[in-house]
User: What shape does this take?
Amino acid sequence: MSATDVIDPPGTTAAGPANRRKTTGALLYVDDLRVTFDGYKALRGLSLTLLPGELRAIIGPNGAGKTTMMDCITGKTKPDSGIALFDGKHDLLARDEPAIADLGIGRKFQKPTVFESHTVADNVLLALKGPRAAAASLFGWRNRVAAERIDAILTTVGLIAHRGRPAADLSHGQKQWLEIGMLLAQDPKLLLVDEPVAGMTDAETAQTADLLRRIAGDHAVVVVEHDMHFVRALQCRVTCLHEGAVLAEGSIDAVSADPRVVEVYLGR
Amino acid sequence: MTRLIDLKGAIFLGLLAAFCLAVPVLNLAVPEGAGLHLPTYLVSLFGKYLAYALLAVSLDLVWGYCGILSLGHGAFFALGGYAMGMYLMRQIGSRGVYGNPVLPDFMVFLNYKELPWYWLGFDHFAFAALMVLLVPGLLAFVFGWLAFRSRVTGVYLSIITQAMTYALMLAFFRNDMGLGGNNGLTDFKDFLGLNVQSQTFRVGIFVATGLALALGYLIARVMTVSAYGKILIAVRDAESRTRFLGYRPEHFKTLAFTVSAMMAGVAGALYVPQVGIINPGEFAPGNSIEAVIWVAVGGRGTLVGAALGAVIVNYAKTILTGAMPDAWLFALGALFVVVTLFLPRGLVGTLVERFGGRRAAARLPPEPEIPPKLAEEGQGS
Assistant: This one.
């Protein structure tokens, strides 16, 4: 497929004004993604466009396809059809997980996934952006990272006091933050964050919203979340998914006032 | 930062150095007949233990730090042993029963007209030494690259490693293989000009094995305390997560597996001159499983524990097979069950957990999982 084939998304799949931005200047351009698991249609023509530095919240009921969408973008799941372009030129569907991570897409999982055997500082060390070849890691730069670089990140996510503890000993909320810290260390162009405030207290939730707003701008951030207070606190554009496609997109007020969104999601 | 030589490493290297000094002194300097004299056959027996300890360290590198439970590490050990055996066969020269200056006895017997191509070069020690490293290393590289790239893990990987060593055993049993078939390679005479039966050689190869064990330990230690080792542990505990950070776990695993196989090959090469024979029985799956038990007894993910486990279990084997030859396999099986149930971290692992501090304990591999059904029954009784 040549690049010109994919520049023009078919108008028929447009689900909102965002799609008309096409790939011009878009950091992430996803069009008409379709995924089937054993006959179950997890994604039915999902389309999404994200600008560099944009903060976007994704909401939607269980089974709407939020996590499957992230799986497709990060190479974990191969869709049956569709287009996913990064930076207007990299075909994400032709790459595997490490290659996509290397392009600059970081991911935080729904269940906090940190390296429990390692200290908090070592978790950040392993995430730090830089060459990741096996041979290079034996004697290479990752063995000589200045402590200040790691400490700066740990200060940002409020874990500096815990830097020497094994990650296994952290609370659930602290693990969530450590994972966000690892994303910061990875310094990706796009962060995909799946339910970051699950299991957090209200105060922690507010802090997390604040942190994500600060991160956006330098990085594009996609946040999947059920907590509507949190989504409101993000003050960003919202996309509502339903049954594997985009149902509505716009400001939080516009989306939450949409009768279809109220029916399938908010009203439940 | 973790130091290269920690407390247990210092104790281990200290004990090993003392052992490698004491054994030659007691054998060479104390006159025969004196109470403290150590007979030469014991020197070789201890040397055999040290070769096994090196095999255990190599296995712990992949199992303890990378989660690769290889049930075929004996294959790399045996391949290294065969490479050494081929060198020793070529040193016999015309002193064989048939007096053929080029062909080993079994080839004359099987009507070989000339040396097969893969025997060429083995009359040179340097070439043979290179093959001791390259043959196991290359096999592990190809095997590992194919298996890890296809994301074969866990019990499936263990099964194919076992199949690998079994297939090699069957292949080496064939006379057509040109490696002595069932009888293997034996009747060695010289090693670098030294008579393999001489006291000097026996003590020399013992010390060399001790040095190889120390070096193997240090290489494994350099690997595991570096950023590479941290990523290896991360791969062990959460392989898919490392991919989303941009790492390629298959590269990390293949490197560890290859280095480990080379180490096992060296262990086999040092073992063969001390026992005087290498045959296809060394490929038997049971040997590889026994090595896994040594590591489990000593403690996975501690390196020192693996070496200790190998020595302890093999010492017990020597005693028990002398006293009650039929009981050994039952004792080995019972030992494995007892360790899994009551000492899941092994001897050294338990010490690290108790006294090594929280950080060191957290790095140990996860305890073996008992299937929920068994655990339930355990609670019920």
Observations:
- The first strand of chain A starts at residue 28 and ends at 37.
- Chain A is about 35% helix and 20% strand.
- The radius of gyration of chain A is 19 Å.
